[in-house]
Amino acid sequence: MVHRPHRYRAQAWLRRGALALLTLATTGWASAQLSIVLAGNHGLGTLEILLLALFVGCFLWIAFSFWAAIAGFAMLVARARQPGLRQPSPDAARLQTRSAVVMAVYNEDTARVFANMQAIYESVAATGQGHAFDFYMLSDTTDPDIWVAEELAWHTLTTRLGAGARAFYRRRRQNVAKKSGNIADFLKRWGRHYDYMVVLDADSLMEGKTLVAMARLMDANPGAGLIQAPPVCVNRNTLFARMLQFAGRIYGPVFAAGQAFWQMGEGNYWGHNAIIRTRAFMEHCGLPELPGKPPFGGHILSHDFVEAALLVRGGWSVWLVPELGGSYEEVPPTLLDYAKRDHRWCQGNLQHARVLGARGLNPVSRFHFVSGIMSYAASPLWLLFLGLGLTIAAVNTLFPKAYFGVQKQLFPDWPIFDAALAQSLFMLALGFLLVPRLLGVLLVLADGPARRGAGGAIRVLVGTVVELLYSTLLAPAMMLFQSKFVTKTLLGGTIEWSPQNRDDGGIPWPVAFRAHIGHMLLGLFVGLLSFAIDPALFLWLSPLVAGLVLAVPIAQLSSRRDLGAWLRKRRFFLIPEETAVPPVLERARAIFAELRARPRGEEDGLRRVLTDPLANAVHKLALATAEESQPAESAELFVARRKLANGQSLSAAEKALLLYDRATLDSRPLPAAA
Amino acid sequence: MDRLKTPSRSRPRSFSADAERRIRSFLRGFGVADEAVLKELVKRLRRMAPSASTAEIDAAAGLWFADFLGRPESEADKALAVGRVAWLTARAGKRWPLALFADAPPATLAEAIRRGLPALPPSILGDAMPAATLAPPRLRAAAAKPLRARPA
Predict the structure, then answer these.
(1) What is the DSSP string of A329-394?
(2) How far is CA A41 from the centre of its chain?
(3) Which residues of A610-620 are buried (b: 16+ CB within 10 A; e: fewer)?
(4) What string of DSSP letters covers A225-272?
(5) Any idea what the Cα angle at residue A249 is, between residues A246 and A254, rounded to 5°?
(6) Tens digit of pLDDT for each residue in A478-493?
(7) Is the peptide bond before A363 cis (omega within 30 degrees of 0)?
């Protein structure tokens, strides 16, 4: 179903064609050069051909990213907007459409998520368009204590926002299909009341004016199914996260603009900080359960890519709009938290192999799936590439080629190795990786407020060099982590759904040691082997060897908050959003501090609901608004009631059951409110 | 002990005590602590819900809150839930305890309740979201058929 002609499509294919041509041409040239290097004067053997094939796969990937980033840089320099997206009229008319801002949470820090919601709510209200937005906290929390804390935090929020505040809370009894199921449940209940919904993660923050701008863009583009605002990473204090934030802020815009350049209306969805046309989403994005067992069967984990693909299949356009601004999120605080999140994403992206061939998908959507898979599959490919290269070198050392053959010959067959060509290839690959980042730096240096906000030109340059060194050292460990995740997933392993760590806690040395001992040993082995083969080879591999051997201190030291704070005080790894803090971030921090300072009261959620009249009333109201039914009489419920009556300890599941049990909620004598 | 000796006499008294306990528990849920006030409110609620069953107490209280908040009687259950939260938020159990279930509650109470009244979400629609098909193209499915049909 096409809702209006997508005039951008011809231009989009032209852009994609140009990128594909450049990618294929550079990969072809680089592969030809490598084949010359590998062939020497003996030709290509099986190992060399295999190595070449791996190189082609890996190089295609970095070449495409490079050319897309170059295009993105050009777009940013030209201050070009998405040509296929109609801009709304500049007059600030009252919004006529209604949007729901939904925040999906799962056992999160209650004060943090409600502080974020209040800050966004107030920011929207300050635009004068508050009438057009309702806010929903959609909880999939399984811990009954956090559940009750969320209800009380919601009550506090509505009290703080004043009479008639349109902020609602709903906790789902069964968290089927995780976040996508949570959003689907919201849509089934309330979706049709709204033209659009803005999906937020627990760590998302968005400026009110951005939300209003997104709603206006949707109004102006009736064929748009989804508009994604790329988030800037903020709020972190550990060294690891601060470098990640810095890299994201300095290099990120070039890459985001590059993606927007070739994706146009067949863009992707990042799962949050996006506005979605509810009708389109409800019609096309009901996710089926894939046949078979996890990790490839069952519920779709990385639902966002699939939802974007389904919207595009349904005739709706999906846009990434980098110029929106006012969109924020947080990064994991440590390398191990980052790796844990990567494991989840890896499993989700690899599951897309099952969806890749689905009927009727747009080729660009299929490409999104492939690129998502490649963002993890590239690691084992690089690992194989390095392993194979090392093997070839070892074979050549252990079994040297004979200079003189069986037949008599006047001159020996000197082994030919074109070192200069090999070096130029290496420099080309390095350039493809570095140039987009340097272009990002250039943009920041050229932008006065951004440059000053990031600590000034010198600090931006020093920060970039240190960050590049750090990410070079980090890359081998990440390659091994991701290779492990890919292998584990392919062998049928799954990962549990656990809440993301959002606190700035460090990694203890023993934990870092346990996580990286394998990396260290492998690094030592590769270092010794390469040195034994040829000291020159060791030098080539030294960044990889150093990254692996130093993995433990890298992980531990980078997880430290004090180092991050020390560098921040000296204005290193600063981002402009820390120098001139956006109002919504500042407000969220202030509210969070206020909420944290309040006395917490009874921690046991069930006890609190049974003894505190207000907690009891708020809990019953939450159940009433969600129209939750009384649980059926069962042995579990009977046992839970008996345990409660006898003062025995209850499991989380039993507490949750009793929190739905009307008889329990009504029967307990409540003391008068203090 | 009387109850054990004379079960026939004790039955209605026990029932009455049980009803009173239910009503008192219900009223304490509104933050009413003063014994004299409780006695008066128990009398009032007994008149509103003669059987004093939990359902009847809830229904009567719900109707009172629906009337007080200007909501339709069909939403009495939600009016009770939201009204109780607003009542407790306004600490009305301490400030205006005798206004609970009164025929003419004071305007100051109405204003305090209005300020603490949480908004309710819109009605639940219960729509369906059809599951999208993610099956491979027909051609491939057809091509795979002979393989599937082949005996092991």
Answers:
(1) E---SSHHHHHHHHHHHHHHHHHGGGTTT-TT--HHHHHHHHHHHHHHHHHHHHHHHHHHHHHHHH
(2) 47
(3) bebbbbbbbbb
(4) EEEE-PPEE----SHHHHHHHHHHHHHHHHHHHHHHHHHTTB----SS
(5) 130
(6) 999 999 999 999 999 9
(7) no
Min Cα distance B33 → chain A (Å) is: 5
Within 10 angstroms of residue A407's Cβ, the number of other Cβ atoms is 5
Q: Which of B30, B128, B136 is closest, CB to CB, to A358? A: B136
φ and ψ at residue A402, rounded to 5 degrees: -75, 130
A355 vs B114: CB contact, 8 Å cut-off? no
Tell me the nearest-neighbour CA distance from A109 into chain B, angstroms: 23
Position A413 pLDDT exceeds 70: no
Q: Which of A239, A244, A241 is nearest to A566 (CA)?
A: A239
Contacts of A114 (CB under 8 A, 6+ apart): A137, A150, A153, A154, A156, A157, A591, A595
Q: Tell me the pairing of strands A274-277 and A196-200.
A: antiparallel
User: Which residue is closest to A286 within chain B, CA to CA?
Assistant: B131
Q: How far is B54 from chain A (nearest CA, A)?
A: 8
Residue of chain A minimizing CA distance to B87: A614
* Model confidence pLDDT, tens digit, residues B57-72: 999 999 999 999 999 9
Chain A's closest residue to B58, CA to CA, is A666
Residues in chain B: 152
Query: What's phi and psi for A171, nearest 5 deg?
Result: -110, 130
B78-92 CB burial, b ≥16 within 10 A, e <16: bbbbbbbbbbbbbeb
Q: Which residue has the higher pLDDT, A554 or A406?
A: A554
How far is A361 from A284, CA to CA, in rounded Å?
Answer: 12
Contact present, A437 and A564 (Cβ < 8 Å): no
Distance (Å, whole) CA A641 – CA A639: 5
Number of helical (H) and strand (E) elements in chain A, helices listed first? 25, 10
Q: Do B134 and A288 touch (CB under 8 A)?
A: yes
Q: Which residues from A are below 8 Å from B27, CB to CB?
A: none
Residue of A nearest to B28 (CA): A672
Distance in angstroms (rounded) separating the CA atoms of residues B119 and B60? 22
CB atoms within 10 A of CB A604: 14
- Could you tell me the two tokens for A642? 């008996």
The ipTM value here is 0.84
C-beta atoms of A359 and B137 within 8 A: yes
Neighbours of B52 (CB within 10 A): 21
* C-alpha radius of gyration, chain A, whole number: 28
Task: Give A265-292 pLDDT, tens digit per residue.
Answer: 999 999 999 999 999 999 999 999 999 9
**Residue in chain A lying closest to B135 (CA):** A358
- Confidence tier at A534 by pLDDT (50, 70, 90): confident
Residue A406 has pLDDT above 50, yes or no: yes
Tokens matching residue A225: 């199914």
Q: What are the strands of the beta sheet with A327-329, ordered from one edge?
A: A205-206, A327-329, A232-233
Which range is least confidently modeled, A198-202, A257-261, A408-412, A549-553?
Answer: A408-412
Of A191, A617, A667, the CB nearest to B127: A191
Distance CA B93, CA B30 (A): 6
Interface probe with A: pick from B85, B100, B115, most Cβ of A within 10 Å = B85
Distance of CA B107 to the CA centre of its chain: 24
A359-362's contacts with Cβ under 8 Å and 24+ in sequence apart are A359/B133, A359/B134, A359/B135, A359/B136, A359/B137, A359/B138, A360/A313, A361/A309, A361/A312, A361/A313, A362/A266, A362/A309, A362/A312, A362/A313
Contact of B109 with B96, CB cutoff 8 Å: yes
pLDDT at A383: 94
Q: Which two tokens stand for residue A141?
A: 């929390």
CB contact under 8 A, B132 and A286: yes
Residues facing residue B116 across a β-bridge: none
